[in-house]
Amino acid sequence: MKILVIGATGTIGSAVAAALEPRHEVVRASRRGDVRVDLADVASIDAMFAQVGAVDAVVVAAASGGLTPLEAPDDANFWRGLDGKLIGQVNLVRRAAARVRDGGSVTLTSGRFAAPMPGSSLGHLVNAGLEAFVHGAAIEMPRGIRLNAVSPGWIRETLPELGMDPATGTPATEIARVYADAVEGTAHGRTLTGAGT
Ligand SMILES: NC(=O)c1ccc[n+]([C@@H]2O[C@H](COP(=O)([O-])OP(=O)(O)OC[C@H]3O[C@@H](n4cnc5c(N)ncnc54)[C@H](OP(=O)(O)O)[C@@H]3O)[C@@H](O)[C@H]2O)c1
Asked: Mind listing the pLDDT tens digit for each residue in 39-64?
């Protein structure tokens, strides 16, 4: 398969690209590099598909919103996770529906917190919104194209950057297998966590 991985230089995306590369042709995209896209800019999504051409699958692991206090004084700062991660992935699906080959797939990334933590409210909103979107949009995907989300918990490699214990996180290689299952398997309209869901 020809598989477009958006966010392929990141912690999760690089592990997903590495997991798929032995069996597939992987095209790596992000805001920097040979294939460029900014999920917050829908014109750049169109330009990316024009550059890459038809693909069998798209995986998105990009554009985190970060943690923002509920009472942040700056509205733009509070809402910044919305443009790339939520609206960006929705726009990606709407474009991919016309560009992915028959019987292909689109796999998005949501995420989950073990419990609410300060600054996580927008993340909860974005992740729940994405998962609801996938559930609702799956029945409208044309030509047998499957649509799923992967919902990672904290990734081991990310936790030290946040001053948290890496032992409590999932290794990126482990969550990469969940993305590979989404691409190579039969799931449709689902949120996959790798924990039997
Ligand atoms: N790491 C975790 O513990 C964790 C847990 C749960 C969910 N998640 C979610 O998983 C996704 C990936 O997380 P990560 O930790 O792998 O992130 P990361 O290491 O920061 O990597 C992000 C990747 O996305 C690209 N990117 C960032 N903004 C973009 C944009 N607007 N358009 C296109 N590409 C963009 C980055 O490259 P450029 O800078 O070159 O664009 C990079 O390749 C995020 O949605 C995050 O919320 C992560």
From this structure: 999 999 999 999 999 999 999 999 88
| Ligand 1 near 58 CB (within 6 A) | no
Query: From CA 5, how far away is CA 29, in angstroms rounded?
Result: 6
**pLDDT classification of 158: cutoffs 50, 70, 90:** very high
Q: Domain locations in the chain?
A: 2-193
Could you say which DSSP state residue 171 is in? P
Alpha carbon dihedral 8, 144, 83, 69, in 10-degree steps, equals -80
* CA diameter of the chain: 48
Closest Cα to atom 37, ligand 1: which residue? 30
* Reported pTM: 0.97
Pocket test for ligand 1, best of 46, 52, 64, 90 (most atoms within 8 A of CB): 64
Q: Distance from the CA of 61 to the center of ligand 1, in angstroms? A: 5
> What CATH number should be reported for the domain whose range is 2-193?
3.40.50.720
